[in-house]
Amino acid sequence: MTERTAIDLRALVDGFRSVTTASVADAVDRVTRQPGFMSHEIKPILPAKIVGPAVTVLERSSLASQPPVHALQAIDEAEPGAIIVIGMEDPPGSRNVAQWGGLMTVAAVTRRLGGAVLDAGVRDVEEIRQAGFPIFSRTVIPATTVGRYITVARDIPVTCGGVLVHPGDILVGDTDGVVMVPRAQAAEVLAVAQQIEETERRMSARIREVGSILKALEEFARI
Questions:
Q1: With the C-alpha atoms ordered 159, 48, 45, 79, is the resulting torsion angle positive or negative?
Q2: How many other C-beta atoms lie within 10 A of the C-beta of residue 3?
Q3: Which of 32, 113, 147, 168 has CA atoms 20 to 30 A from the CA of 10?
Q4: Which of 203, 208, 190 is nearest to 21 (CA)?
Q5: For the chain, what is the domain count?
Q6: Looking at residue 83, what is its pLDDT?
Q7: Residue 209: pLDDT above 70?
């Protein structure tokens, strides 16, 4: 990563921290004409805001008893602030396994990563909460992936929560859920999200003045 790219990324991350995930979801709809929001099943383990570039890992079903090598490599090698995104080839079948646990959390906190978004479950939740590490997952389950799933690749496009995520895409998440922002359009999406929030601030003030949401919608030509 060049110095200029790193500066641009920091500016984007700082910008997205200042807007809500709901505004980002609306902005992605407008800019890309494609939904960026993940399934409602992808929920935070603890209230948190995540913003950062995606580092991706892919898992698939396997009876082999081996650790999630690609995920562990991703944790050890990702830049500080990165979001680990683990996709599954069979998300419906993977709800009853945990892709992440306590030791991975210790490593991620030590590496100063920004969070993790999982297409399956998580375990060791109390350890994760004590560490304050932001994780979004489909389920909470004590079962390991060992002997059930293996990691097969990293730094490739993966589907997580029904959304295709490329390495470097910006992930934005809070208690409303997670949104993927395509890296190439991130600056435009951020500008639109900021415009949305400014309009909503003005509308909120107008609603308080006139006591009518319908009148405010009409005045601002807002759906």
A1: positive
A2: 7
A3: 32
A4: 190
A5: 1
A6: 98
A7: yes
